[in-house]
Amino acid sequence: MRLVGVRGVSKVFANGVEALANVSLEVQAGEFLSVLGPSGCGKSTLLRLIAGLAEPTTGTIDWSDDSGRADLGFVFQEPTLMPWATALANVALPLKLRGMAKSEREARAAEALDNVGLKGFERVWPRELSGGMKMRVSLARALVVQPRLLLMDEPFAALDEITRHRLNDDLLELWQASGVTIVFVTHSVFESVFLSQRIVVMSARPGRVSAELAVTTPYPRSTAFRTSAEYAAWCRQASSRLGEAMAA
Amino acid sequence: MTGAKVIAPIVLGVLMLALWEGIVRAAGIEPYILPGPILVAKTLVADWGTLEPSLLVTVRITLEALAAAVAIGGLLAILFSLSRWIELSLFPYAIILQVTPIVAIAPLIIVWANNVELSLLICAWLVAFFPILSNTILGLRSVDPNLLDLFRLYGAGRWRTLVDLRLPAALPYFLGGLRISGGLALIGAVVAEFVAGTGGNASGLAWRILESGYQLKIPRMFAALVLISATGIVIYLLLTWLSHLLLRRWHESALPES
Question: Are A56 and A7 in contact (CB under 8 A)?
Fold first, then answer.
């Protein structure tokens, strides 16, 4: 079932830069979709358009029903936490903005923190957390509204490899447990192959969809998958598609 | 290290005072040219009856001006952040007020206000409000654009965004402005009184300095000067402490050095 469709979308910024040219793609409900492309290919712009944070110059974003857009989670490249608020208050923010009562939103936020492995960190301030933990708080904040669609904009790009791998594992677990649809933007071939069912490869300046690749390896994907020949083969395929996209 | 930070300036201060006293005594300088620190301290105690009411007047005007600067500077900054048009129309005038020397407009204000204390208050406020205004504006704008997007994503209106995002983000900037304004309010209050140049029952420390000058009571002049400096230091320390109290849990500026 289709959750949201991007149809012939172009985006030209006020300064004349053409970020996206005639991009079309479908996001199926419940899937894990990666958007893979070099930096400057308009991946982030695409996410912002889907989120409704920017309007396409031409084309449309079609939701299968009206409640879709209201049910979003967004994880940015940086943790983007409010430094003046505790982890719990940061996670509870979306609920607060929607007018939920304090006791209820704090209970839900505590649960969301627990789900990302940060039980007991409710009263901790962002500056006391490591980069990976901050990203977990950010993830909890996106998931606390129980979104149907989770948009992630290179969320783990700034983390070290060990932390990134662990977060990838946990993200897959959360995805499988919650049934949320994920659109994951990344410039890492390895990350996109490990995580997703489907990879949309984009070319740069202006960004357009140049290839699509279905990664058919079943879940759960364990650490063993990361070192398997199968994984390497997928990575090779994705890599060559990305190479073609960049050469085009 | 903490001990040295306190002891070093105190030792230097005591040495300088001793040197000053020594020179005054050795050279036999008359008190109406340069009184020694001991004489100044004695005068401070002896003239406390005249100096204390003046100190209270100066402190009162300073604090009232600072409060007005916080209220009006802060409100204007919020108004500017909410409406680009209000900012475009008003900000140039705020700058004009800021760059015009207070000594130059004080006589006008004194004529118009027709009340010494009110005119002193207006002058002190004029000097003090700009750092709060400009710093708070800067702070209200220095918001993480991703956080702004997040607020939009979850349907927060302008008011919610102001209260839950812009104001907390602006707090460190506001407090920085407040510390500058605290000192400026005192300077404004003193300078304006010099320009007013009138005594009366409600005269502040600046008038005591002028009066002591006319009467060649130089030790009293120094005593009044000491009180003005002490007031400035106390205001600065209080505002620094307030800033630390509000920011210590989250802002980089208040973190202990590691």
Answer: no
Which residues of B, range 107-166, sit inside 8 Å of A by Cβ?
Answer: 144, 146-147, 149-156, 160, 164-165
Give me the residue from A76, A82, A98 closest to B154, CB to CB: A98
Residue A64: strand, helix, or coil:
coil
Contact A97 B146 (CB under 8 A): no
Name the 3-class secondary structure at A105: helix
3-state class (DSSP) for residue A83: coil
Comparing CA positions, the residue from A70, A4, A68, A66 lying closest to residue A31 is A4
**Domain B47-252 falls under CATH 1.10.150.130:** no
The string over A75-85, giving b where at least 16 C-beta atoms fall within 10 Å of a residue's C-beta and e elsewhere, is: bbbbbbbbbbb
Measured CA to CA, the distance from residue B80 to residue B49 in angstroms comes to 47
- Give the HSE-up count for residue A220: Cα atoms under 13 Å, Cβ half-sphere: 13
**CB < 8 Å to A140, chain B:** none
**For residue A48, which residues of chain B lie inside 8 Å, CB to CB?**
149
Residues in CB range of A63: below 8 A, 6 or more apart: A3, A4, A69
B168 with A84: Cβ contact below 8 A: yes
Predicted confidence at residue B114, as pLDDT, reads 80
CA distance A126 to B249: 10
Candidates A74, A81, A82, partner chain B, best to mutate (most B CBs within 10 A): A82
d(CA B172, CA B246): 9
Tokens 């490990």 -> residue: A194
Do the interacting molecules here have an ipTM over 0.85? yes
- Where b means 16+ CB within 10 Å and e means fewer, A107-133 reads ebbbebbebbbbeebbebbbeebeebb
Answer yes or no: do B153 and A51 touch at CB < 8 A: yes
Highest mean pLDDT among A9-13, A210-214, B211-215, B229-233: B229-233
In this prediction, what percent of chain B has a pLDDT beyond 70?
96
Question: Which residues have a Cβ under 8 Å from the Cβ of B232 and sit 6 or more positions away?
Answer: B183, B186
Cα gap A193→A189, rounded to integer Å = 6
Q: Encode pLDDT of B231-244 as tens digits.
A: 999 999 999 999 99
Cβ <8 Å between A83 and B160: no
Q: A168: pLDDT confidence band, cut at 50, 70 and 90?
A: very high
Amino acid letter for position A107: A
Residue extents of the structural domains in chain B: 1-28, 47-252
